[in-house]
Amino acid sequence: xxxxxxxxxxxxxxxxxxxxxxxxxxxxxxxxxxxxxxxxxxxxxxxxxxxxxxxxxxxxxxxxxxxxxxxxxxxxxxxxxxxxxxxxxxxxxxxxxxxxxxxxxxxxxxxxxxxxxxxxxxxxxxxxxxxxxxxxxxxxxxxxxxxxxxxxxxxxxxxxxxxxxxxxxxxxxxxxxxxxxxxxxxxxxxxxxxxxxxxxxxxxxxxxxxxxxxxxxxxxxxxxxxxxxxxxxxxxxxxxxxxxxxxxxxxxxxxxxxxxxxxxxxxxxxxxxxxxxxxxxxxxxxxxxxxxxxxxxxxxxxxxxxxxxxxxxxxxxxxxxxxxxxxxxxxxxxxxxxxxxxxxxxxxxxxxxxxxxxxxxxxxxxxxxxxxxxxxxxxxxxxxxxxxxxxxxxxxxxxxxxxxxxxxxxxxxxxxxxxxxxxxxxxxxxxxxxxxxxxxxxxxxxxxxxxxxxxxxxxxxxxxxxxxxxxxxxxxxxxxxxxxxxxxxxxxxxxxxxxxxxxxxxx
Amino acid sequence: xxxxxxxxxxxxxxxxxxxxxxxxxxxxxxxxxxxxxxxxxxxxxxxxxxxxxxxxxxxxxxxxxxxxxxxxxxxxxxxxxxxxxxxxxxxxxxxxxxxxxxxxxxxxxxxxxxxxxxxxxxxxxxxxxxxxxxxxxxxxxxxxxxxxxxxxxxxxxxxxxxxxxxxxxxxxxxxxxxxxxxxxxxxxxxxxxxxxxxxxxxxxxxxxxxxxxxxxxxxxxxxxxxxxxxxxxxxxxxxxxxxxxxxxxxxxxxxxxxxxxxxxxxxxxxxxxxxxxxxxxxxxxxxxxxxxxxxxxxxxxxxxxxxxxxxxxxxxxxxxxxxxxxxxxxxxxxxxxxxxxxxxxxxxxxxxxxxxxxxxxxxxxxxxxxxxxxxxxxxxxxxxxxxxxxxxxxxxxxxxxxxxxxxxxxxxxxxxxxxxxxxxxxxxxxxxxxxxxxxxxxxxxxxxxxxxxxxxxxxxxxxxxxxxxxxxxxxxxxxxxxxxxxxxxxxxxxxxxxxxxxxxxxx
Lengths: 507, 507
What we know:
Chain A has 507 residues and is an alpha/beta fold. In chain A, 21% of the residues lie in helices and 29% in strands. Chain A contains ten helices and 31 strands. In chain A, the strands form nine sheets. A six-stranded parallel beta sheet of chain A has the order 18-17-16-13-12-22. In chain A, strands 24-25-26-31-28-29 form a six-stranded antiparallel beta sheet. Chain A has a five-stranded mixed beta sheet with strand order 1-8-7-3-4, with no helix packed on it. In chain A, α4 runs parallel beside α5 and α7 runs parallel beside α9 (400-412). Chain A is globular. Chain A starts with 5 loop residues before the first strand and ends with a strand. The model of chain A has no long low-confidence stretch (mean pLDDT 96). The A-B interface holds A 319-322, 325, 347-353, 355-357, 360, 382, 426-428, 450-458, 495, 497 and B 319-322, 325, 347-353, 355-357, 360, 382, 426-428, 450-458, 495, 497.
């Protein structure tokens, strides 16, 4: 039996203890714990971690004394104990929540502007690559990363992962033919898994990755199901899926930086119906005691993002040309935060989802931001060793991350939390602070001109106040204070693409 | 009495003669002529050209002997005569017609790929500017120009025109206030026109311009009405409009390069209803004996382009981001040629309709071309003397015209006449020859990658034939033959924006 007697608020309390190893410990025994402090009381499920060890985890939300009681069929004993929860330190702001309908904040109310990237299976690469990815992330603007629990089978991703989620052996991938290679619903004979026995090491390793991300302030947007599969993990039965989801939530929920992405491209997973997805959402919602953020990502058509369990819209590009530009319409339609997790990636591979220029990706980020949503990054530069950031992590080669960092800085300078679109002229995008009183107090306006190249623009806010004006070059990452203006005024611009103008009332 | 006894096919035969000058010769007398050859017989109306002279014009369509008979209340005499029509010479291919539903050809069946520009009132500038514009056009790729018969009142266009269409005097423009400046439906007091008496010199000058365009192979897309007006020409009565249209068609119809654009931005002309437009279309259709091309251009919503009198769709941008990309949908919807006369102009003025980059304008041209339509050019670079190509003509400053010339060359290399879109991969635009047999015979495919940056693409047409492949850089205007391929093959691309690939079957 092992547990700490003191931990920080919103960190992982873990109780571990030996237990029964006869029969199948993953399915035949249970472990449950009840945690109680002055302000909260929660009952949580634990899990079998292999090697005869059972664990139960908990994330406390109050700086109080907690008592706990662990019981279950895993062991004849009942365990009781106490621990003290201390104030959060460093960058610990708690889990991220939706706030004010369209926005996010950490539990301590610090605004959170998601600036996500995608590296689908960076976590399933070798140690060296993982260390390299973490180093790249540390230097990057990204504060969220989407990645998978199951391995991925796709272009540039034909190798075996470092580990599998189940005990057993994989198919011989050399038997794949052109015909069955991409048929995501098809049988892939030769896999030999025991879906009743998890490979605990696989999940321990993912926890290591989640923990490392947590240290550098990055949210782990965990993709629970995806179609790019040759091992059969996308084709398990409803019962197997439920067991998987309960195991995952028991293991990961106590990490404050976890988000649940039910699926990447749910609509390509041929053998799961909407009823199945609803059932899986129900399992996650009831098994995660902390209500982590939940989403479901599409390939073609959206899932019904109005479903109550969907906390925010995780959106994929809807058109080769126009996607971020729909952000304000989607806000109105779904009344939830709009996170454009995939709007095509900076890169040069053959597919258009992975070959837009840095200029175009950064433009899409700004369009999204000034329309009250959030862009998403990915990078797919062709690599002779098939190491593409989008799937493997590694190093960032592109020109967009530093510009996205610049945008993140601008977003974080918003008075209050969040930008909302404001209808101004037909030929500009304008954002103001989401909170009415903040917008009122500051007169803050952020205008974006996208690929238009105006050599000047005229503005009018009122006849009495003075406004300080900055001209922002979103590509060259400069902010130039061009002076103070009153009444109707004209701002000179360089007649180049990708300019923005920021206005604030003086005094 | 004066007329030639020999003229070239599709050129202007003009009969002129003195006549009555008592009362109002513009309204009180008529002049009509009947022309007859072995193959055609047409009755056409003439017009009063001032100074006691009446004229009647005719464009013969056959290399035959013609007889004519002129009569009317303009004079007590009846005139008869004959003339010989000789074969066309030089660049005379006859008037442009719609062919094969979506395309254009000259009357002699030479394919015509419209590559238009817009200079709204280049014709109403001083002689020097007009000469400069004609010189610029001569060196340009443009073979169509949109311009107005009435003067224009708008940003950068506040001066008086060189002449007015009616006898009388204009308002004092210094009395305009901010309030009535842009109210296109409003009264503008102070104008004093006799709408029953045309200023013949105004129209003679426009004929000079049409004639100069004809010499350099440019179609004159004449805008008959537009809303940008302070003189009241947009607010005439139905009767006045009918008189105007009959005068214009009597004067201009015999010029083979004339097209009728009923309006620029018809939907902004507040005091004209759909019934009015339909009536005006009817007048033009019945008064123009040659059936010149007819269109009506929108500001916001389209006119009903399915109306039988509309020969082709003259389209304005529908969205800040996406317009040329709708070309194939509009083909399906209207079953007529799609001419994107305004898809935003290359420039740097404050308005987004006039400040896209050359890159973006050229991209829109290619999108339109590879989707079976035609882009339209305009240029609005800010100028301290307010001389903007889009309105005044003058010199071209931009980077798009030479790239549009390059595209025109590529379009004119299409086997047969016209490109039609072919659905291939979701992430490319592909065009093939419009004529099924030409497409079949040549295996010609033109792929366009827009702002995508693929470093290679895979192709497959069949397993037996060889295909020659060219990589086209649409911005740098290069065509590189990269070899001959068979079966499934991969073409290396530079991973830059704006690339195209052209494929032709060998042998």
